[in-house]
Write a structure and sequence with these properties.
Helices cover 65% and strands 0% of the residues. By secondary structure, it is mainly α.
Length: 303
């Protein structure tokens, strides 16, 4: 609006300035320079092949070139798809370990065997994993990701035991294709207490993720105790899982349901014992010189 008003005022003040625009140049004959030396205007006519329509001009200015435009300009040109992202070498190393465990014992497999199976050098293997146990921990991490990738929102209204049962059965289903490798790991760690202790720490961390997936608090000392208890539940079901001949894992489901019910009863008894012994804990707190603030701090840390 302001621009049109400006043009109207200008047309009234200079009626001929807009009606007849001033020529940008005038053509002269060669040699007829007059008082000034004028150079004839040279206009380069673009080649017919370089003419762009409105759509092509927009494409050119944006820097894009759709497939149909490229094919129209050069029908014989081949559209090359973008190269896929390189695969994570860690997955190849984990797969190599599982393949070796399917035919050999845990203690008989060395780092050089894993590197040769994965077709990488020892230096590359060392840069990705510090030990054989770390490769096994990488496998457990893959299982965690596969379980956590499922949506459990439809079970939000179910009891905690039912949610936990669903999460753990998905975990067993993810482990099922690697039962022979897991059998070798179990047998090997029976004679390797240090390795078993290290694997227990990794497994407890995995159980905390399973608790979180089931909507059960997993943080703090109480959450850590829940994760360790859940790992004991899985250990009791593990032998049944390894020898379950049913593709649907019917025996595993039955054993897991029984163990979860038993663990639920134990948890209820522990809660009852905690309530019963609460007055005695108060007495011990006073004897040891711990006031109410100390108990509140412990309660806050446990929460």
């Amino acid at each position: 609006m302001f621009q049109s008003s400006y043009l109207k005022r200008r047309s009234r003040k200079h009626p001929t300035s807009l009606a007849r625009p001033r020529p940008m140049d005038r053509r002269v004959k060669p040699g007829d320079d007059g008082p000034f030396h004028l150079t004839p205007l040279r206009v380069a006519v673009p080649d017919e092949r370089l003419r762009l329509d409105a759509r092509s001009l927009r494409t050119y200015l944006s820097g894009d070139q759709p497939e149909e435009t490229a094919m129209a300009q050069n029908p014989s040109a081949e559209i090359i798809p973008p190269s896929p992202k390189p695969a994570d070498p860690r997955g190849k190393i984990v797969e190599a370990l599982l393949e070796l465990l399917a035919h050999r014992r845990w203690n008989d497999i060395g780092l050089a065997d894993i590197a040769a199976r994965a077709d990488i050098s020892l230096a590359e293997l060392r840069g990705l994993f510090p030990s054989k146990g770390a490769i096994l921990a990488g496998f457990l991490r893959q299982v965690d990701l596969e379980v956590l990738d499922h949506d459990v929102k439809d079970m939000a209204q179910e009891p905690a035991r039912e949610r936990l049962f669903d999460v753990l059965m998905r975990r067993f289903e993810a482990l099922a294709p690697h039962r022979e490798a897991l059998r070798a790991v179990r047998d090997g760690l029976r004679t390797d207490p240090m390795g078993a202790a290290a694997l227990n720490q990794v497994a407890v961390s995995s159980m905390q993720w399973m608790l979180a997936a089931a909507g059960i608090p997993e943080s703090g000392p109480l959450g850590l105790a829940r994760a360790q208890g859940l790992l004991l539940v899985l250990a009791r079901v593990f032998d049944t899982f390894l020898n379950d001949p049913d593709e649907g894992l019917a025996r595993t489901m039955k054993a897991l349901d029984e163990e979860l019910r038993r663990a639920e009863k134990v948890a209820r008894v522990a809660d009852d014992v905690g309530r019963i012994t609460a007055p005695f804990r108060d007495v011990f707190d006073r004897v040891l010189g711990r006031g109410k603030s100390g108990r509140d701090d412990d309660t806050a840390a446990a929460a």
